[in-house]
Amino acid sequence: MRRATGVFYCLALLLHGCLIVDAAKILVYCPSISKSHILLCAKYADLLHNAAHDTVLFIPSYSTPLDNFDGAKHAKVWRLHNVTDAYDQKFDSLASVMEDSHIGFIDRLRYDVDFWMEMCEDYVRQIHRLQHLADYKFDLAMFNDIDPCTPAIVRYLNISKTVLLSSEAIMDKIAWDLGLPLLPSYVPSMEENPNHDRMSFFERMSNAYKYFQSIVVHYLQERRVLHIFQEHISPDFPAIREIIRNVSLVLVNTDEIFDISRAFSPKFVYVGMIGADNNVALPKHLDEYFSKGKLGSVFVSFGTVTPFQVLPHRIQLSIFNAIQKHPDYHFVLKTSSGGSFGKNLESISYLNITDDNTTAQLFCDVPNVDFVNWVPQNAILNHKNLKLFVSHGGMNSVLETMYYGVPMVIMPVFTDQFRNGKNVERRGAGRMVLRETVGNETFFDAIDEVLSDKRYQASAKRISQLMKNRPFKPEERVAKWINFVLEHDTAEHFHLESNSLSFIEHNHFDIVFMFLVLPVITIFVYRRFKSKSKQ
Ligand SMILES: *[C@@H]1O[C@H](CO)[C@@H](O)[C@H](O)[C@H]1NC(C)=O
Ligand SMILES: *[C@@H]1O[C@H](CO)[C@@H](O)[C@H](O)[C@H]1NC(C)=O
Ligand SMILES: *[C@@H]1O[C@H](CO)[C@@H](O)[C@H](O)[C@H]1NC(C)=O
Ligand SMILES: *[C@@H]1O[C@H](CO)[C@@H](O)[C@H](O)[C@H]1NC(C)=O
Ligand SMILES: *[C@@H]1O[C@H](CO)[C@@H](O)[C@H](O)[C@H]1NC(C)=O
Ligand SMILES: *[C@@H]1O[C@H](CO)[C@@H](O)[C@H](O)[C@H]1NC(C)=O
């Protein structure tokens, strides 16, 4: 029977070559943190389902507006409702994010540590509700550690093999936990950090400080989660860092062509852009919108969290100004994210969207603009007349845009988006605009430069060619690596020995100390000896 599924899989994969594997039970563990987070989990779940594994996408409910959303087309979906009220309540406090110029250390302690602990406590109190997961005897669990409680929950389920998903490029805390070298000299810290790999002295200083913040925040997260689990589950509960470093693989949601190169270990596999749906047809009215414009069209979308009407007025005006001064281009503006978010959007109170008539009123005299709610983004990026994408720089968006060779102007909102924006600049495929510096002409200048200087387009096309022609599709990497770790025990095999070194040993501080101190002692002893012998 199991062989039969393997043969079936072989037929299904004729194009990619044949794999005979036994079907395994795989858990994709995915709290409802955000829509894009669930969508990414669903892509993994569908992929492994199609690779003939018995795959369950398990969604503990954090955000009630997402209670009916899963995004899975094939895999089984199990849910756990009513896990916590804390997430919906706390999410309101994120409302101010667009107003603040940047998220500082104190904010990170508040959002990244306190934010999660109340939920973790709520969750652990009802952890018996997960017994059916433990009883199902999964062979492998995939999870993401944005919610610091997750690794401990997965550990509680006694699943022998684990795979970590990094929903951005390699996150600082994952690098730290898996013992990758500490290299803030050229590896930009992931969060709230507008830097790429070439930094001035002060940028390196700021980068090192951001890295330090990440590690402190992460250390506190792990300590408090451990405390909760030792109190409620078992006093012997293992350290979270040890749970994470024992994963078999880390699947990283980025791409080695677009992303800047950095050092990592064999446990890391780059699989950015899995399951990108390349075959969605563009609805007729959208095709018409994007075909307008003598010189081309421009798509403007800041993602589901920040549709146009929640942007500060100053930024709206700057975009308005840019559109008005580019009459030969047609702009398509994404306003409220109706569509795929559906009715649930209104229930996210922080967006406070009733009806987006304000945007329509603002643009009532501007002919070269149309508004859309939801769009099949891949189909739009593939549109012949599209010349530029103005976006917030979310990782998935940026990868897709680069894949289709469209230049970008990025205004980051939070987390890794600053880094993505800088990266696009580093690759010569666009410009980044920081929201605290936006004035009336900012968007005009950036958009004008990227549209008129053909080098941006050439760089974007070059990256697109490399991404399209790179060996091994991300789907293939995921399926084959997962099969490999299912069949073989490699978690320990791929351990970096840095894991067993102390911080001092890892960074050669002891050796540097010796090098500095030894000559001093030698000189000192020599002088004493000489002066003594003279006497
Ligand atoms: C969640 O709990 C509330 C009150 O305890 C209950 O009314 C509601 O039906 C529950 N929802 C689900 C989906 O179980
Ligand atoms: C996990 O394994 C331990 C040790 O065998 C056992 O005591 C515990 O009940 C198991 N946990 C679950 C959720 O089944
Ligand atoms: C991690 O792996 C090591 C080596 O295989 C093992 O000794 C240790 O118990 C594991 N720790 C946890 C928390 O699973
Ligand atoms: C900003 O741009 C708009 C549109 O071009 C223009 O009407 C307005 O006067 C400008 N405001 C300032 C302060 O320059
Ligand atoms: C939401 O919008 C309504 C109507 O425009 C307004 O009365 C209310 O104060 C707003 N709430 C927040 C939290 O901004
Ligand atoms: C928004 O515009 C639509 C159509 O023009 C109208 O039906 C609706 O009442 C307007 N809503 C508000 C809040 O003004």
TrEMBL record:
Keyword Transmembrane: yes
Subcellular compartments: Membrane
Topology in membrane: Single-pass membrane protein
One of the record's GO cellular component terms: membrane
Secretion signal span: 1-23
Predominant place of localization: membrane
Family, as annotated: Belongs to the UDP-glycosyltransferase family.
Name of the protein this chain belongs to: UDP-glucuronosyltransferase
Organism annotation: Caenorhabditis remanei (Caenorhabditis vulgaris)
